[in-house]
Amino acid sequence: MKHRVALVTAAVGLVAAGAALVNAPASAAAGGCSVKYKVAGEWSGGFQGDVSITNLGDPLTSWTLEFDFPSAGQGVNNGWSADWSQTGAHVTAKSLSWNAKVATGASVSIGFIGKWSGSNPVPTAFKVNGVACTGQSPSPSASPSSSPSASPSSSPSASPSASPSSSPSASPSASPSTDPGGPAPQLHVSGNKIVTAAGKPYRLLGVSRSSGEFACVQGKGMWDSGPVDQASVDAMKSWNIHAVRIPLNEECWLGLNGSPSGAAYQQEVKKYADLLVANGITPILDLHWTSGAYSNGPDWHCKDATATCQKPMPDAQYAPQFWTGVAKTFKGNDAVVFDLFNEPYPEVGSDWNKTLGWQCLRDGGTCTGIPYEVAGMQDLVDAVRATGATNLLMVGGLEWANDMREWLAYKPNDPLNNIAASWHSYSFNACATASCWDSQIAPLAAKVPVVTGEFGADNCGYDYMDQLTKWADKNGVSYLAWTWSPWGCSTGAVLIKDYAGTPEPGIGEGYKAHLLTQNPYA
Q: What sort of enzyme, by top EC class, is this (predicted)?
């Protein structure tokens, strides 16, 4: 950024409806509710629960759903569209900022992935804001799937909309992953899709985890004091994150200009990437900060000769060495993806001449307005492939990877044809509307895999991200939000309050809720 097993039972459910009979002062809001609880899919030891709450009383400004599991072996592992908690058998789901208001007659849908042992009976009583929802009847059953790797047969609710107080009307998203575990899949390109070694389509859905690009040159250690242990990975898994993009610094990897030991940095990167792979999460290694004095452009452009900020293009002096080293380190592990350069903007130095920009992006060398010799994307592809590494590669476009219009014409040659297009999309970019995505990105996604390597908004709301993720889901595009870093969301693009995964209101809550509805294999 600039600045499993087969479903073994039919779904079961119940509806609780009617106005609650409670004594309340005349000034109190009248309560009443209808709650539909459905086991959307069940497998050995686990299940997906979908819950729909309809407000039959006065408008709500916030809500809390409560119920008890009948069996001691039942529990909530993680959930979406609510703040879920459980004490003993008692389950509580509290509204989030974007779906707290529910008008009279309107509904809100939430869900969770649960566990069970012995039996998985349906709860028989529900309360909303302390008011009992009475009157019960069974809901229709869902058909079990015969596929040994099928996802739950019914999808969770649609992701939050710009008008959370109204009843959800969007089409359901793909079901969350029911992957029973194991390491991240080996990946390669097939046509316009990323696929596993077995040929199954797979989307990279997750986050960028910043600090590996800057902490090492700012005296902040390797990861800016953030943990890279199992607990921190478990926090990511609680969001249903399946891919993590890791920005890196070429000088720290190579041990140049007084940066920490290259060997120590390399060891930390490999250790973290291996941990992610072991947990079923795809690591995407991104060359983010590079060397090269750059004096052109506005004052905010990076003009330091060393790798202490973001440059318009990678340098020929060190970037190929960086990728040679990374490729040798991860050679033979195709669960690791290489994002060759973060956000190119070579056209700025040539007074926004896009033809010169695309030529510089692909071919490198002496580029107009860039005083150092540039490593083009072809140079970096060649550096990786010369080691024998077969890893999936990502290559960006112009305008900080937002302009992808000539990407196919300037795609570097790869003997393995194993390259995905890396697109970045922020609310302040030139291409930041569905109409632009339809005209510029969808045609590209029809030809090659497109990975939204970064996306976010210039505020802390979820509206822009909601639009983009829904569009990307419809068009088979992968996405990685910026950033899984607890920096405080004052101007946007910060997802969490802490490395335990506590979401920021709005942006973090919305994205977590959406990820929990997604299956990367769908």
A: hydrolase
